[in-house]
Amino acid sequence: MKILMHFSDYMATKLRKKLNLPGGIGYYRMFKPADQINGHEVHLVGRELTNYGTYQGEVWKNIFSEFDVFWTTYFKDPKNAGAMFYTAQKMKKKVIIDIDDNFWEVPESNPLYENYKKGAKDRAYLSTILFFADVVTTSTEPMKERIMKHFRDVDGIEKKVVVIPNCNEAKDWDFPPSVKSKEEFIIGYSGSNSHQDDLQMVLPSVVNIMKKYPQVKFHIIGAIGRGDVDKYFKDIPEEIRQRIALIGATETFKEYPAWLASQKFNVAIAPLVDSAFTRCKSHIKFMEYTMAGFPVIASRIYPYFMPLNGKEIITTGVTGILCKNNEWESALEEMILHPEKGEELLANARKHILENWQYSQSNIGKTIDDMLSHI
What we know:
By secondary structure, the chain is α/β, with parallel strands linked by helices. It is about 40% helix and about 15% strand. The strands form two sheets. The protein has a six-stranded parallel β-sheet with strand order 2-1-3-4-5-6, with helices on both faces. The chain has a six-stranded parallel β-sheet with strand order 9-8-7-10-11-12, with helices on both faces. Helix 8 (about 195-210) packs across helix 13 (about 330-335) and helix 13 crosses helix 14 (about 340-355). The chain is globular and about 65 Å long.
């Protein structure tokens, strides 16, 4: 088959669009799966999609005249979707849509809640677009089950959903780890502004540790804007606030691995509030933190403590530390008092990811080939 894969996510920044480069969604959900496809002709496009015509009908006619399959990340534009599906069905071509977030259960604290709450137009548009896709791809088994449940409950159908897990590409993370300071201990966190509940959950434990150990600092990449400092840190003593740093994130994924590896985190944290939304997440943070050179403490919920496709994620005490909500302080303190434990966890985790979570070791190519042969 001849496949056109579109990597531009609908949240793309102006710079990403200008440089025609993917963010994290495009990297993990389009670029890396495309590398695993054999026996089919694959083309990756971002903003070049508009080069196929001057209006939507022309664009889709030209695309489906050339390609058998159009595969894209999820979007919510009903007019574009209508033209796409009408043309695909008329020309007997196929559409695959990837979605890796549970937008049916977005928490109220999430910036996108108003877009996807019950009764919101975007929620209806996105559900309808997924309904018409020939196949929906996603990243985890819980997300697959949530998608299938929606279509069983709402439409009475068994939707074809295929899991393509997020893995690691070691060569993309081939940067020397930063040299850590012996005078301070940095707890690091990297994430989007959709994880503010997760940060608020763990923040009291981090603050208590900072009160107890004056050498501890907390560095946050991307999750909290400077305009939100008072909102999230208003009850934190000023002396502690001075040891919290907000660090900007990269706008494209291309710069992110080197940027993350340059941070001087002694430990990286992956807190998740246990909810229907977070249980559909993948274990990307564990892989990224580890390959950037940081031992990991994570919440003991899916996606960190349950195997995926028969492969373990984090084995607590071996490749990382898994904790319940009341265990964060003790886990952080253990890492501060026993730095050799962090080194051991990191070495084990890196070995685990290199031996079990590389794209080259996955069966993604076979999964995609099977999917294409049945649409």
